[in-house]
UniProtKB/TrEMBL annotation:
Residues 7-28 have a biased composition (Low complexity). Transmembrane segments: none annotated. Residues 1-43 are annotated as: Disordered. Keywords: Coiled coil. InterPro entries: LOB. Residues 135-162 form a coiled coil. This is LOB domain-containing protein. It comes from Erythroxylum novogranatense. Residues 55-156 form the LOB domain. Belongs to the LOB domain-containing protein family. The keyword Coiled coil applies. Residues 29-43 have a biased composition (Pro residues).
Length: 208
């Protein structure tokens, strides 16, 4: 019995709130944490450009090898013009082309490549004479044109002489005509004077 009383006395009465908490009031007085914005993305200007992937030159692409950074053939055989290296390689060979370019200064390499491509084209068109045949044909055309030019110049000189002779002849004829007209006028004046004198002498016996 004593034990039951001790347990009952140890239990504290439960306090019941007089009014229930209002729903409109916040459950806690702690302010909400500030809004944390997400980390800003880098601007487009700050984004590094993608690495430029250079395609191999036409020579290295045809030879199926890696195009080095300082490739001798790259500046003169771009990937957009593969036919240039194909023609030159067919006639001269890649090793000879590289050797030629390495022996020349950079200021003359572009002209050398153009000459090699032209000569290779001529060699493919004319395997016997090649570029020499084209040069001979052009020289023949130049000689023919020079002969035609000389002939035309001679004809021009002849026409100028003929024109000068015609002008001189016309001037001579005009001078002769003027002299003839003057002589006729003088003759007419003289004849009139003679007629007047003859008339005067014919009337003299009548008045005497």
């Amino acid at each position: 019995m004593d034990t039951i009383n001790k347990v009952a006395s140890s239990l504290s009465p439960i306090s019941v709130p007089s009014s229930p908490p209002s729903l409109s009031s916040p459950t806690s007085t702690t302010p909400p944490p500030p809004y944390q914005s997400s980390p800003s993305l880098p601007s487009p200007a700050a984004v590094p450009p993608p690495p430029v992937v250079l395609s191999p030159c036409a020579a290295c692409k045809i030879l199926r090898r890696r195009c080095a950074e300082k490739c001798v053939l790259a500046p003169y055989f771009p990937p957009t013009e593969p036919y240039k290296f194909t023609i030159a390689h067919r006639v001269f060979g890649a090793s000879n082309i590289i050797k030629f370019l390495q022996e020349l200064p950079e200021s003359q390499r572009a002209d050398a490549v153009s000459s090699m491509v032209y000569e290779a084209n001529a060699r493919l068109r004319d395997p016997v004479y090649g570029c020499a045949g084209a040069i001979c044909q052009l020289q023949k055309q130049v000689s023919e044109l020079q002969a035609q030019l000389a002939k035309a110049q001679a004809e021009i000189v002849n026409m100028q002489l003929h024109q000068t002779n015609l002008v001189a002849l016309i001037c001579m004829e005009m001078t002769q005509c003027q002299e003839t007209i003057q002589q006729q006028q003088q003759y007419m004046d003289t004849s009139c004077f003679l007629d007047e004198n003859s008339l005067g002498t014919s009337w003299e016996p009548i008045w005497t």
